[in-house]
Amino acid sequence: MSALLSVKGLRTVFETRAGIVRAVDGVDIEVERGECLGVVGESGSGKSVTFSSVMGLVKSPGRIDGGELLFDGRDLRSLSPQELRNLRGKDIAMTMQDALTALNPALTVGEQIAEVLEIHDASLPASRRERRRAIRERSVEILNLVGIPAAETRLGQYPHEFSGGMRQRIMIAIALSCSPKLLIADEPTTALDVTIQAQVLELITELRAKLNMSVVLITHDLGVVAEHCDRVIVMYAGQVVEEGPTREVIEKPQHPYTKGLLASIPRMSLRGQPIRPIEGQVPDLINMPAECRFYSRCGVRKAVCKSLISMRRVGVGHRARCVRLEEASS
Amino acid sequence: MTDATGTPPRAESIFRQNLRNFAFNRLAVASTVVVLIFIVMAIFAPLIAPHDPNETDLFRRLQPPAWQAGGEWSYLLGCDGLGRDILSRIIFGTRISIFIGAAVILVATTIGILAGLASGYLRGWVDVVISRLVDILLGFPYLIFAIGLMAMMGPGLVNIILALAYKEWVIPCRVVRGETLVTRELEYVEAARALGASKSHIMLKEILPNIMSPVIVVASIRMAHVIILEASLSFLGLGVQPPTASWGSMVADGRAFILDAWWVSTFPGLAILLLVLAINVASQGLRDAFDPRFHE
């Protein structure tokens, strides 16, 4: 069976006064059915924009400049706004980074879950009273699913009456209310403290198995990826620089950027030694020279890196955008 | 929201917290009571008024208020040039002021909300058209605009409401547009789009509930302005037609006798003052309670 989501050669640009920002420049991503894909990269690497493009949510002055987006065999770019809207929330759901600002403060949690069901669930009964009862039952069921106690009473409460972790759970509940095939979790844990992070990620992993959906976990935390993802994609300056099975990428990173990311994580085994950050800055996305994008920060660069580099195969499903790999493997 | 299980609703929206804040402002609450008294007066005018407001009695022409020589306690505030009871006319005049004020604000706010949401959320040419229209309307002096419209349409209750609402909607429209511009960029609007909500759904169900507080405050402040404008139109003879009692036309009626019979113009003038002042103070209180910048 073909991949659930297949992105080929995606380009998303933002036309600003300073010039054209190529936020996503030729990205290929495949999400298999039932898998959890981690997407890692620092701020501005294009990981969020890639998935906004998939959802058709890129805001002006941004636009998709080229590429192919196939979801479940349908070409997303050829869908009408109406068709795309029917797809969003129903087949592909997304949770936002900050659950405090992503929930509407003026509506109760129950109202916000009911909204999604009203928009997408065609199986609801027609009569108003039965409809309301059915929505209520579903809402309680969903809140129970994401582990919110006393769901009945909590439905009538407003977002500000919930704690941060609870709000993230509610976001996930809203995203899951129509049983999507793909859940895009955009940094679901950045606004949470570490213990709650673990709980929320556990929950996502557990629900993925239970509901048999695919999950894309956008994060900048490699630790999260190591624990929860089957495969990982590392993005840098609008490009995929390395992809492969999580274990392989973490144990045998090929691209110097991935190595740098892993080296900058504090570890107990390296106690007392200074953390080694990656020197330098992400290059300017407006005037990108035709060379390896990591050139200016790379510790192992050579003359060849002054030309465009393509993805090279490293192992089964493991590829990286670096000329150094051949040397390393040979 | 009532709970199916019968447990008392614990939820308290920000809106309700604001209302509670409002209740602590004594002056504002007192003003609200005054406004409510006027509203009750308007509704039950025929039961409260001691006399028929249009009944003329030439023997009582310009009869002074009760506490002056020649006054009678059954005609508390005296009589006008046609011998009509001023108190009764003021009580009936309340109906016109409040009805027109409320109707204009209702019509104008509804139009303003829809236009403001459309221009603030949809942007593009919709925004250009609506914003330019607002700019043009703001360029006209209000009263002259209304006088011109009344001259074109002719007098009448519905025409007054239209003439005032025709321009009044730009005020809520600008407020709503500004608030919408801020709110549309918030993450929960983005989240709603990600969940497949339609544009109208986002405008009416996601954005509108979040911007209602300033809209309510502006509507209440503007109501006082509209009441003054209606009185001005009536004063100029372009408002409600005689013999229907209206505060503005009562003030105008008394102009001829202002030196000999001060009460004919003064009492309806005081009624305008009292109602407008009460509405203003009450809406100031509303603003203080609803604007987070005034919270300590």
What would you say this structure looks like, in words?
- Chain A is an alpha/beta fold and 330 residues long.
- Chain A has a single domain, classed as Rossmann fold, CATH 3.40.50.
- Chain A contains twelve helices and twelve strands.
- In chain A, the strands form two sheets. In chain A, strands 6-7-8-3-9-10-12-11 form an eight-stranded mixed sheet, sandwiched between helices. A four-stranded antiparallel sheet of chain A has the order 2-1-4-5.
- In chain A, strand 4 and strand 5 form a beta hairpin.
- The model of chain A has no long low-confidence stretch (mean pLDDT 85).
- With 296 residues, chain B is mainly alpha-helical.
- Chain B has one domain: MetI-like fold.
- The N terminus of chain B is likely disordered.
- Classes of the chains: A alpha/beta (330), B mainly alpha (296).
- Chains A and B meet through helix 2, helix 4 and helix 7 of A and helix 9 and helix 10 of B.
